[in-house]
Protein 1
Amino acid sequence: MSETVRNLDITQEEIQSGKTMAIISYLIFFIPLLMDDMKKNKFVMYHTEQSIVLLLLNIAAGIIGTITCGIGLVLYIPWVVFLIMGIMNAANGQVKPLPLIGQYGEKFNLVK
């Protein structure tokens, strides 16, 4: 499966001013959505998209884990790995989709 990378035209100023909020978006995804100045920052909104996809993976892992009496809890391992990768990408100022699931973040269309 080939991944297509969007051309987002994110400036260095957006990256520098949004690093902290991009990291926070992985911990509490809706905080950047409440702040008008961060809604305009493409870097922050990109990482918010990625964090929403992670949230959906977390919910799916919980549902599967409940239905399968705990066997689905193995899905939490990739969730933690992706969470760490996302935080590291945000801290390093990188705009890279998370492996396997990051491409679905584009569907939320937060970055305009």
Protein 2
Amino acid sequence: METLRAILPEPIRQAIKHIPFDQVYELRLRANAPVVACVDGRNFSLPADVTCEDLENIVHKAAEYAIYAVLDQMVKGFITIRGGVRIGIAGELVTDRGQVVAIKNLSSLCIRIPHEVKNCACAVVPYVFALNRPVTTLLVAPPGAGKTTLLRDLARQIGTKYPTLNTLLLDERGELAACYQGEKQLDVGQNCDVITGGTKAFGFENGIRSLRPDVIITDEIATADDVAMLKRAVRSGVVVIASVHAADLGEVRAKPDLGVLVEQGVFERYVVLRMGEHAGEVVGIYDRALRHL
């Protein structure tokens, strides 16, 4: 991915030449430490040390030397660049009246690289696509286990299998469709509208009102507001396909807000993933009563 290579210092560019870059999911850059690359689920230390100056330069290049233009993202802890590459940022928070207004003295970056794996959702499609339309589904997996990749392929397959349905993608961090200046960089299917950068609550409320979606796809349901808006969307007749960080269904049920949705049978399908030999390994698929299918 040339956009990413262009913002990296020369020693790091040289170091990553020796690894299969198409299988790299993350690069972790920590001040005064070697680069760590996550390659297909395994971590490798690379022969390139990182300085604080390197971290600052990477962020400035990622922002195209216009930090003010990406400040809204930075105060949320990340920057997304062309191609859907997300750069997570750690450093010293600058606050004003309890609100984060900037990040300075950067200490580390976590660069997450999206992978478009077409047809990776084929194993779950027969369960998620039923009765001539998709069904409301929750993907359950720990971080890095392939939820985003699977969601992207489900969006693409909905566009292929159900060309009359309108899909709305709530891409809060710009990773699913990787829109750049309004143009999708990754294949999320036909008849797919994308809202990038807004909160899920904004996307659910305003998207339903103005874009009339039949299906809403979103990553990482986390807050009480997310859960409330998801429930309202389903009650209004919209199919929702979402994901959540959790190791298993027991952990989902233990979450105060999501647990209520489980008990009420809001989700018709649950797809549980884990980080196995490869990201996105399906552990099990369950119906709304949590029966294994």
Protein 3
Amino acid sequence: MRTLGFAALALGGAFFAAVPTAGVGAATCTKNLAGTIRGARSADQLVTVEAARYGTTYATLRLWQRDADGCWEPAAGPWTARVGRNGIADRRREGDGTTPTGLYTIGPVMYGVAANPGVRYRYRRVVCGDWWVEDPRSPAYNTFQHVRCGAPTPFRTKPPALWQDRVAYRHFAVVEYNMRPIVPGRGSGIFLHVAKNGPTVGCISLPRRELTTTLRWLRPASRPLIAIGTRSTFRRL
């Protein structure tokens, strides 16, 4: 929220307070969680996933929108999200059950077993043979790949495949963790997906209704970012 100073002008006994005055009450933004994340200056939309501590499997997810004055304003939430079964971590490794802390972009394609729910991103409906590669030895590590349905894969796989989990992967967005560059073993397949009954293996999950609202709200033109961590983590981003 931006505040401006105004001078009151007396004209014929009437006071007019709608004239902005230079140097009086410099523009400021209301202090809030989004405003502590300095690395988000390039974005106009921000998703925050705030955990109370590193070992928890719960987090609070909020949506933020930058207003015309350049200040962050709440857009939706707070909602309860789930994170990795071993909490969050600054240094994630493949299979360690943690969700990576940090500030990340949203992938250019959204996916799902179900039909497009009305997102503004390109959308790919998941079918048999669609995989996210979690094999650190594969040159396709941490990328989406399609293999002919029923054919052997050229990489090691971990069940379930994308098309096999019809709950979690009904709709999902890709959090671009370990993408540029991709480092073998640092972790793969970090998604924002539908919640099941418990923590995730490293993704962020939301109840279906809130997840759908979030995916529809995200706009590529707004250069959205997602911040994951504790309050103190955010101050370092």
Protein 4
Amino acid sequence: MKIDLNCDLGEDIGNDEAIMPYITSANIACGFHAGDEHTMRETIYLAKRFGVNVGAHPSWKDRENFGRKEINTSPDEVEKLVLEQIQILAAIAKEEGVTLTHVKPHGALYNQAAKNSQLASAIAWAVKTHSVDLILVGLAGSRSLEAGREMGVRVAAEGFPDRGYNADGSLMSRHLPGALIESPEDVAKHAIELVKTGRIDTLCLHGDHPNAAENAKMLREVLEKNGVEVRGLR
């Protein structure tokens, strides 16, 4: 069994270097919810140093709420918004000799697209417009993956070991008890459960989790002990 281990980074949390040795894909904030040219460049440098795939982590233009407030706008505007962020990161990556492998939306944009077909299609179009070689990462069983497949975009189904789920497979609101799985041991246990479903291509850890570095280390160790090959998306 093979699995990618990704993490949302470049968000000015300060733990990127501690996390990077244990993951295989880095989703890098493109400046709209966090980060700037300096953090993007520094995170790309770290990813290159540790042999980690680099992907864009676009969001709503919402630094005030860290991209976690729902915003509603037209599909055309969403496509432009996402494409702009992919292009920003891709340009910096090119200067550093790195090619983007994937795109994973952030926060509210990610969760809204998981349920909204028009929004999901707009994101998929942005990804395809930039490059047919990019992989679109989305919640397993979501509209995001359906839209990508319909457009001929490569997709990767994602699971969240550090987050609680609703009965319908969506992520629990961060305002609810149990939405954030705190201990590294419980995060690792949940990861194994997700992998065993056979529906997951990549597991995501949040870089802003209080135990992000500990989670990454333990999760990598537990996956490998359970015979799971941890490797980047191809």
